[in-house]
Design goal:
The protein is mainly α. It has a domain of 89 residues. Helix content is 49%, strand content 0%. The longest helix is centred in the N-terminal third of the chain and has 21 residues. The chain is rod-shaped. The N and C termini lie far apart (62 Å).
Length: 141
């Protein structure tokens, strides 16, 4: 259980939907309970929300301040879990975009590299030398 709490699973639509559903539900229940939930139910909801969101998305340090902020009276009326969950999703997606994807084993991988030198007797071709300079790149509208 502890290892699944700190891992960063790949974000899927199902994980994102689960995390957002938990966050919206936690915020909605806290708003509905209002002052009646300030004694114990709010803390139970916060612990459950943090645990379920961490299981769905993986633990993120941004969840800790959200959990601590929820301990203050009247702050639970704000949609802090929803905002925090959306921020974590955005940060995780940005992090995944920079990571290389694993190769697809069903498709062949083709590596193309430029030749190190031209064959003997030929010279490189400069296509830009044969084109007239119209200055179109420097014109402004």
């Amino acid at each position: 259980m502890v290892s699944s709490f700190f891992r960063n699973p790949r974000l899927t639509r199902q994980r994102i939907a689960l995390a957002l559903s938990v966050a919206v539900l936690a915020d909605a229940v806290q708003v509905i309970l209002g002052p009646l939930g300030m004694v114990l139910p709010d803390e139970v909801i916060d612990v459950a929300a943090m645990a379920l969101i961490s299981i769905a998305l993986g633990f993120h340090p941004l969840l800790l301040p959200t959990f601590l902020i929820e301990l203050f009276p009247l702050v639970e009326m704000l949609p802090t879990w929803t905002a925090c969950t959306m921020a974590v999703i955005v940060m995780r997606r940005r992090g995944e975009e920079g990571m290389p994807r694993p190769p697809n084993p069903t498709r062949p991988v083709v590596v193309v590299s430029a030749p190190e030198s031209t064959p003997s007797g030929s010279k490189p071709v400069d296509c830009a030398a044969d084109m007239p300079d119209t200055g179109a790149w420097n014109k402004r509208d």
